[in-house]
Amino acid sequence: MTADQLDPAARAELRTLPADLADAVARQLVAASVTEDPDRAYQHALAARRLAARVGVVRETCGIAAYRAGNWADALTELRAARRLTGRSSYLPLMADCERALGRLDRALALVSGPESRGLDRATEIELRIVESGIRRDQGLADAAVVALQLPEIGAGRPYAGSARLFYAYADALLDAGREKEARDWFGRAAAADTRDETDAAERFEELDEIEFADLEGSADLEGSAGLEGSAGLEGSAGLEGSAGLEDSAELDLGDLDVGG
Fold it and tell me: How high is the pLDDT of residue 212?
């Protein structure tokens, strides 16, 4: 890994550092972004932080790495610092989700719907709605979780850049609300939109597809059984009609008749 692999915009933020130090920080930032193991990636981010704690992109990277590693409190601290240093509000969804993960739902909602959430770009607004949906589900408000995601992008139903996450979240909310068929449809749409394999939408779609197929098979079996039982009942009626003249037949035991068929 080399410093040249760092995104140019991120590299530009390191210009305030001496060249050698900037290269060292850049290498750690690259390692944090490409390392698959979340805990190891976080360690690289922490190494960059030790070298340049007053650079916004460093604190941002550290916060995101902490978030991916499930260190919610550390992530929140780092993202707050990044926001102070850069003035960017694009961190709000992650910050709100950290509050949610820490069980502080009121604080999470305040970030989602408070004054800080105004004037954001559309992509960040959508991410906030995804977090809000998760908060509502945590509160046991499954229908409200669905409503939170009924955005124009859902109404259009057409894939766009980043639509896989929204479609997936909507499918998950529908499933939690007991709307399995709709959830299956939206997992399918999420899978089609997920060209970068960011979600497991395809697997979720297949799971629901198998459940629906099993339900259909079960219904078919029940209908077949009902048809056979109906035929047996008709045959039994014909037999009874044939013996109707034997009013005092001792062999007819009413207790043995299947009156439920």
Answer: 58
**pLDDT tens digits, one per residue of 141-183:** 999 999 999 999 998 877 787 899 999 999 999 999 999 999 9
Sign (positive/negative) of CA torsion 107, 110, 116, 119?
positive
The first and second tokens of residue 99, run together, are 């509050």
∠ CA(199), CA(203), CA(204), 5° rounding? 85
In CATH, the number for domain 1-87 is: 1.25.40.10
Residues with Cβ within 8 Å of 177's Cβ and at least 6 positions away in sequence, in order, are: 142, 143, 145, 146
- The residues spanned by each domain of the chain are 1-87, 89-139, 149-220
What letter represents residue 175's amino acid? L
Gap between the Cα atoms of 261 and 258, Å rounded: 6
Q: How far is CA 226 from CA 232, 237, 255, in A?
A: 10, 16, 22
> For 55-121, where are the alpha helices, taking DSSP H only?
56-68, 72-86, 92-101, 105-113
Q: State the Cα torsion 75-81-83-86 to the nearest 10°.
A: -130
Three-state DSSP class for 161? coil
Angle subtended by helix axes 163-176 and 201-242, to nearest 10: 30
